[in-house]
Amino acid sequence: MRFEHLGAQPRIHPDAVVAATAVISGDVEIGADCQILHGAVITAEGGAITLGANVIVMENALVRATATNAVHIADHVLVGPMASISGAVVEEEVFLATGTRVFNGAHIGARSEVRINAVVHLRTTLPAESTVPIGWVAVGDPVQILPPDRHEEIWAAQRELDFPGYVFGLDRETPDLMVQLTERYGRSLARHADDRRLD
């Protein structure tokens, strides 16, 4: 399913294959020989998404750009089933395994591997040819790659990256943070009410 969103329509190379149940919305460019499998969602929420050549986005994966952070995925990248990329740059020949999460402002260097259920956190730079082990967390710039049982170290780095401030423009200490966050984000997402289906 293809949708015009905020006046922008997807541009899909004629050699790319997009499953009938995939959703492609807005300012999205899909390069030659890409494969977008069933249930994948590629949605440009105010920022552009560019997929190079030979990118594979597997079942139920999510690729989302924001007004603040576009998405660029270079050639020969595999985005595994149920993986999620939000507002990030992924260089060439990267493997993002099943269930990986890549957050806003992240940059993943060429030929890196982010293994099953691993996380590349907000505003994190992962150098070329890096590996994030299964279930581990990459956080910061310079990056720290930590196992999930080191929560205090992860939180110390993550807190400095300021997720609510960077992504939503809200102070973490706001007493009604979730009220403001959901109302602001909800208004932004409500712009989908004017989407137009193209196929």
UniProtKB/TrEMBL annotation:
<dbReference type="GO" id="GO:0103118">
    <property type="term" value="F:UDP-3-O-[(3R)-3-hydroxyacyl]-glucosamine N-acyltransferase activity"/>
</dbReference>
<protein>
    <submittedName>
        <fullName>UDP-3-O-(3-hydroxymyristoyl)glucosamine N-acyltransferase</fullName>
        <ecNumber>2.3.1.191</ecNumber>
    </submittedName>
</protein>
<dbReference type="InterPro" id="IPR001451">
    <property type="entry name" value="Hexapep"/>
</dbReference>
<keyword id="KW-0012">Acyltransferase</keyword>
<dbReference type="InterPro" id="IPR011004">
    <property type="entry name" value="Trimer_LpxA-like_sf"/>
</dbReference>
<dbReference type="InterPro" id="IPR050484">
    <property type="entry name" value="Transf_Hexapept/Carb_Anhydrase"/>
</dbReference>
<dbReference type="Pfam" id="PF00132">
    <property type="entry name" value="Hexapep"/>
</dbReference>
<keyword id="KW-0808">Transferase</keyword>
